[in-house]
Specification:
This protein is mostly helical. The chain is built from eight helices and no strands.
Length: 223
Amino acid sequence: MIPLNSRVAAIAAVVVLAPAVSGCGINAIPTKEENAQAKWGDVQSAYQRRADLVPQLVATVQGAAISERAILTEVIQARAQATGVTVTPEALNDPAAMQRFQGAQDQLSQALSRLMLVVERYPDVKSNQNFLVLQTQLEGTENRINVTRMDYNEAVRDYNTSLRTFPTVIWAKTIHSGSEPMQLFQATEAAQTAPTVNFDALNPARPGGSAAPTTPGAAPPAQ
């Protein structure tokens, strides 16, 4: 049996040392890791919100007599690809998984950009109240995506730094030795290039854009 004095001394030591241990960063790594994973959840939620808007957007545009149907198909396919690629919190340290997710989301971003450019040719679509509401919601969602990505990247930088700097590097090499750096969310090279659309090539009335526009009442161009 441990003498009473010894037990009192042990308890006193724990009381005294506990703040010192916690203050030296022993809990910093798991805390920062949890924070980064929570921020990643916000990123995925924002992207999911965009994906949820796409079917409504496509349905609204389909109601108009637009000739560029291939763009709608591209948007639908890109959405299917984007919603089919996910990254779990446990895989945030896997560069390949993150690249697949980024690539799929970037493809949808590009497809939506092309769709919006096409819609510019159709006043009836642009003035449609449903389309205007969806466009506003989509713009807000894109802004939200940017914010959540920046918040996630900041949380990841904070976490990754804690794995390499004193005093938390001590715990990264010992108690939290299984902790690995997380991947930042970085826009791909394709996402940084504005999409281009050749409307003439998309218009069946002018395949390839080779036919010159005609004026009503004017003679047809010479063949």
